[in-house]
């Protein structure tokens, strides 16, 4: 890629410029990938033979619009009319993916796209790699039950059904989070461009930490994206802000991870008894706690060793002179 050795080596006053030149995908590459995604989604929804695709939601970094320049990830969540409950997607996934694979192969979409398209079918899943000259995004294709009503909102009964499905399937929490991909898209799309830039900076740092600690698993990038949103919502809420202050705030939150209990009540809250019990259970668990704003069963922050490693890295960056030369305090969050 075009990144310097590490984000640590970028002077504070050059961070904005660094994000524009090294972390944001170029508009041209982004447009080619967007066009390819739209073409694929249309092909999936236009087909007349079963399985009937009601809708396709875009998830992962691509759906959240937090794609890093170079290589990134995405999901194409395919809502199938035959799936009537959460457990159905687990049972029928293999057969559905076979049909989707056949459908996309028959369309010969690669002839119509400016981006290069490659598909891979393995026993566990189906991936589509879209690439342009400077950018590639690997999409996992995931069949899902459409859990939201026509208004696109969840109701308390949605989450009661989710809890029951997890219990019956003895599935791990978050197993059916893909059903709420549209909510994740909405959650991130309601935030300003500059916040997405701060997220890109935090993600680039996270990627470099992961390279350095390749044998250890660090907390997922999604957890840090949510933490960055939380820092901005609690401490700033301005469309335009000092990127260094924002960065310092996020690093300081990672440093104070033993105090972190982060959750939102935009899609669910404490009113319904089942949901309340799920939330209280999560909130009382060991810190740090970061709850997926779309799925109360999904704690995205589990993994204490990884958080400890990130804490060390965060302290290193905070101490480095590059940040010490920066003006202004961090935001007041905790």
Automatic annotation (TrEMBL):
Name by which UniProt lists this protein? 2'-5'-oligoadenylate synthetase 1 domain-containing protein
Keyword annotations: Antiviral defense, Immunity, Innate immunity, RNA-binding
Q: Which residues form the 2'-5'-oligoadenylate synthetase domain?
A: 153-333
Q: Which GO terms describe its molecular function?
A: 2'-5'-oligoadenylate synthetase activity; double-stranded RNA binding
In terms of superkingdom, the source organism counts as: Eukaryota
Q: Which family does it belong to?
A: Belongs to the 2-5A synthase family.
InterPro entries assigned to the protein according to its UniProt record, in alphabetical order? 2-5-oligoAdlate_synth_1_dom2/C, 2-5OAS_C_CS, 2-5OAS_N_CS, NT_2-5OAS_ClassI-CCAase, NT_sf
Can you name the source organism?
Myotis lucifugus
**Any GO CC annotation of this UniProt entry:** membrane
**GO biological process: any one?**
negative regulation of viral genome replication
